[in-house]
Amino acid sequence: MKLTRRAETLAQCTGMGQAIMGTLFLGMITSVAGVITSINAAWQGAGELAVSNAIGGIAAQTTFLVFADIVYRRSNLEHAAASVQNLFQTVLVMLMLGLAILASAGPGYTIGHVDLFSPLLLAAYIGGIRLLAAAGENPMWQPRQTALTQREPTERESAPVDLRQLWLTFGALAMVVAAAGWVTSHAGIVIARESGLSQTIVGSLFTAVATSLPELVIALTAARRGAVTLAVGNIIGGNSFDVLFLVGSDVAFRQGSIYTAINQQQTFWLAMNLVLSAIVMMGLLRRQAHGSGNIGFEGIAVLACYFSGVALLFWGE
């Protein structure tokens, strides 16, 4: 909650905007717990847990958008937060997920023990972020403004603000999130070993949801404060960063390419993330003003897909 308030202030004081702040800073910081979990698991040889934590977190975070939509009572969240940045971020997530699926079906060629698809994924993310920044500065088109579209403040905060203090506090809160991720990774490995549950189940549901809780809290807090672009940008931006967990895990996994360790259940979950991202994008494009129970068609579809996927995951265990 403190991160959200500071991020909203920084977005206005620096002129960065909520979409970029949500993607580059909140998305990365709230993903720190997850990336530490995946890298630590891969380093200890638990490749299945590392991959499942990464891809399970994307599904959980996308589903959290529905809860933020419920909290934002004024209109459908995807209608209010429609922007070229959020649309672009969703496409970037889908591109990176597609590359991960290609890597899992690929030959597993490595340099040392790092798969050749890992630097490609990293390059796709960096290039996408650069294009995102350019699209925000010089957009070639904009979604039509309606009475329900949430507009960001166009002027920087005029009140005196200590930016240095804001950034230091922001960094300290990020370290707390990172420490929680390190503890969670160890707990997940022990749970998988002692409970008899597969690493796919533990990673996709337990550690993924646990390390994604910061995204849920930020999405809910931002939506309640009316910072809807920040809420959506944090979730979608965090999703694209979560795909990079696979790159870090591949580097830490000393048994070879981590993509060749992706099993059928994980491939199913990767495809599910593509479906969920596509549904969110349709919601951003359709811009349904109001829905049933304050959520639009995309919220109902995301909930149905996610919980159906969870049920199938347990059914196949």
TrEMBL record:
<dbReference type="GO" id="GO:0008273">
    <property type="term" value="F:calcium, potassium:sodium antiporter activity"/>
</dbReference>
<dbReference type="Pfam" id="PF01699">
    <property type="entry name" value="Na_Ca_ex"/>
</dbReference>
<dbReference type="InterPro" id="IPR044880">
    <property type="entry name" value="NCX_ion-bd_dom_sf"/>
</dbReference>
<dbReference type="GO" id="GO:0006874">
    <property type="term" value="P:intracellular calcium ion homeostasis"/>
</dbReference>
<feature type="transmembrane region" description="Helical">
    <location>
        <begin position="267"/>
        <end position="285"/>
    </location>
</feature>
<feature type="domain" description="Sodium/calcium exchanger membrane region">
    <location>
        <begin position="4"/>
        <end position="122"/>
    </location>
</feature>
<protein>
    <submittedName>
        <fullName>Cation:H+ antiporter</fullName>
    </submittedName>
</protein>
<feature type="transmembrane region" description="Helical">
    <location>
        <begin position="227"/>
        <end position="247"/>
    </location>
</feature>
<dbReference type="GO" id="GO:0005886">
    <property type="term" value="C:plasma membrane"/>
</dbReference>
<keyword id="KW-0472">Membrane</keyword>
<feature type="transmembrane region" description="Helical">
    <location>
        <begin position="84"/>
        <end position="104"/>
    </location>
</feature>
<dbReference type="GO" id="GO:0005262">
    <property type="term" value="F:calcium channel activity"/>
</dbReference>
<feature type="transmembrane region" description="Helical">
    <location>
        <begin position="20"/>
        <end position="43"/>
    </location>
</feature>
<feature type="transmembrane region" description="Helical">
    <location>
        <begin position="201"/>
        <end position="220"/>
    </location>
</feature>
<keyword id="KW-1133">Transmembrane helix</keyword>
<feature type="transmembrane region" description="Helical">
    <location>
        <begin position="116"/>
        <end position="135"/>
    </location>
</feature>
<feature type="domain" description="Sodium/calcium exchanger membrane region">
    <location>
        <begin position="166"/>
        <end position="314"/>
    </location>
</feature>
<dbReference type="InterPro" id="IPR004481">
    <property type="entry name" value="K/Na/Ca-exchanger"/>
</dbReference>
<keyword id="KW-0812">Transmembrane</keyword>
<dbReference type="InterPro" id="IPR004837">
    <property type="entry name" value="NaCa_Exmemb"/>
</dbReference>
<feature type="transmembrane region" description="Helical">
    <location>
        <begin position="49"/>
        <end position="72"/>
    </location>
</feature>
<feature type="transmembrane region" description="Helical">
    <location>
        <begin position="166"/>
        <end position="189"/>
    </location>
</feature>
<feature type="transmembrane region" description="Helical">
    <location>
        <begin position="297"/>
        <end position="316"/>
    </location>
</feature>
